[in-house]
Specification:
This protein is 26% helix and 34% strand. It is of the alpha/beta class and 170 residues long. It has a single domain, classed as Rossmann fold. The relative contact order is 0.17. Homodimer.
């Protein structure tokens, strides 16, 4: 299936000069959603997964679907102030300034096998911060899995110590 045909470009979103990759056409098409989920699962293979971690907010689209198919738990990583229980945070650099992500301290047990999923790998800052949180909790990252990879932004360079897969590359 040509998944790129279900991803539209939105110019100057969320700010001027950015070409946003909008996956909502893929999400609203039942067949494309099913086929892309199956293709993402194929990228994972037969490895044992205990938890699938999805990053706020578009990582929440596929991560729970993958977790369900893998008989694994789903763990959300969120922006500050969104998780109710005891949590830890990780700062990361943005183009101008910094941001932070949080995870519940009891979300991952030491030694659990973790799949990291997000919709798009761009510069890699969010994914790297997420991996750092998982490792601080003692999780073992078995793969970083993305629907779309923007290769020209070199985000994979921040994740070069992990097995990285993506369904669609630009």
């Amino acid at each position: 299936m040509d998944f790129k045909s279900y991803i539209r470009d939105i110019e100057n979103f969320p700010k001027a000069g950015v070409m946003f990759k909008d996956i909502t056409p893929l999400l609203k098409d039942a067949n494309a959603l099913q086929k892309s989920t199956e293709a993402l699962l194929d990228l994972i293979g037969d490895v044992k997964v205990d938890k699938v971690v999805g990053m706020e907010s578009r990582g929440f689209f596929f991560a729970p679907l993958l977790a369900s198919h893998l008989n694994a738990g789903f763990v959300p990583v969120r922006k500050p102030g969104k998780l109710p229980a005891k949590k830890m945070s990780q700062n990361y650099d943005l183009e101008y300034g910094t941001d932070s992500l949080e995870i519940h301290e009891d979300a991952i047990k030491k030694g659990e096998k973790v799949l990291v999923h997000d919709d798009v790998l761009a510069t890699g800052g969010t994914a790297k911060a997420t991996c750092e949180l998982i490792e601080r909790l003692g999780g073992e990252i078995i793969q970083c899995n993305f629907l779309v990879e923007l290769q020209f932004l070199n985000g994979s360079g921040k994740l070069n110590k992990y097995h990285l897969t993506s369904l669609v590359q630009y």
